[in-house]
């Protein structure tokens, strides 16, 4: 592919960035925060009040792990604090709004688009490759959805991309890229330590295999020691030694299908994986590395993705969010494939680029034909697990009024609950804490946090939740006990579907188009009597 004139590049990249700005930033408050986002938001509110994230604000507990996240001082120790303090800063500037909470994360996702362009442009002086990489990432609906969440996801992706950019610099002799590399990895740890361990180990192994001659032992040792020293406070603060279940190597074979199907269905299509395996067969079998710097970098990216997905097999929670930091790397890899194809067949390269940027056909259809597509039973034809034009689905949702399950509950309780009312819900307690002034119990808080006043309202969600031991959540049992008292509680049926999560970004759960009747309606139970009769047995 011939180098693109600077004038064309100077026009096309701002155009891509402008379109991406709309996709990442427009109507961030379209739907309310869902459970995980609300956890971050509630903790951020605690930071503004106390200076540190506390899991109790005097009225409500913040917990999704039955109280394991904190001790007697209620100091939050379960997950790193970077996302919490960034959200707190956003709330300080923009107020306690959905848009303010999501804005820094959406901005980080947009920065990823700019970063992949700058990385390729500066390190390989190939603006066409850089533009295609930016376009693929900017139109990735999965990446957009996760970036529009008040969580660490896009921050992790940005920090991983920055670390790759710094690694390609002359960190062996200059302190600025070396410090950038160390800082990016440390911030990745304080964004999510699981991402750090999986990514840093994978990138390190890939660097040894591909760039061994660029790894001076003394310099590497110095940077490793500096990184370890900066991580040490977090190791103790977040009680990593007590984080049971973070890795379980007995789950590797059971997770094999899930994580690799995630990779093939949403990140790098299976046909291109097979093509790359064939192209790099000598590098794999004979350890003959490519001479071309661009191709060697593409191999480096592919190995990071492969090793990272492999390490994730030992993680009990099989969640797509743990792979999001690989999307910018995959965008650069896929753009390189298009770049190489352009040299052989320009029409095929354009067709491949259009398919990768604007459809998910190459990801889904081959998996469908082989009968190995991962499509859970609750997935419909207008979700990302079916062949679609993802941007059309995303824009359809963005310009429509979606009957969000959390939004419906928030609106109902803000209209009907009295100040000081207690709500027991089997899920979605944290959005209610953030958006209403009520005391909210239940959810995944565990039995110890359910004691107290008999609830004025009960929400028994349709989908039953279980804890890590696969036992019925205490809130489920309590809700069934209360609503079984037919003389005390009356049912109120709301005109909206009782979806499983709400605005969850995971492609296996995110709906762009709401369910149609018949569906399971959301039901709220109101207490008809007064008096404090205690908790159910």
From TrEMBL:
UniProt GO cellular component terms: plasma membrane
InterPro entries membership: LipidA_mod_glycosyltrf_83, RgtA/B/C-like
Name of the protein: Glycosyltransferase RgtA/B/C/D-like domain-containing protein
Lipid biosynthesis keyword on record: no
GO molecular function: pentosyltransferase activity
Domain spans labelled Glycosyltransferase RgtA/B/C/D-like: 80-231
Domain of life of the organism encoding this protein: Bacteria
Species classification: Bacteria, Pseudomonadati, Thermodesulfobacteriota, Syntrophobacteria, Syntrophobacterales
PANTHER family hit by this protein: MANNOSYLTRANSFERASE YKCB-RELATED, MEMBRANE PROTEIN
Subcellular location: Cell membrane
GO terms under biological process: lipopolysaccharide biosynthetic process
Membrane topology annotation: Multi-pass membrane protein
Keywords: Cell membrane, Glycosyltransferase, Membrane, Transferase, Transmembrane, Transmembrane helix
Transmembrane region(s): 7-26, 101-120, 127-146, 152-169, 181-211, 217-238, 259-277, 297-315, 322-341, 347-365
Key word NADP present: no
One Pfam family it belongs to: PMT_2
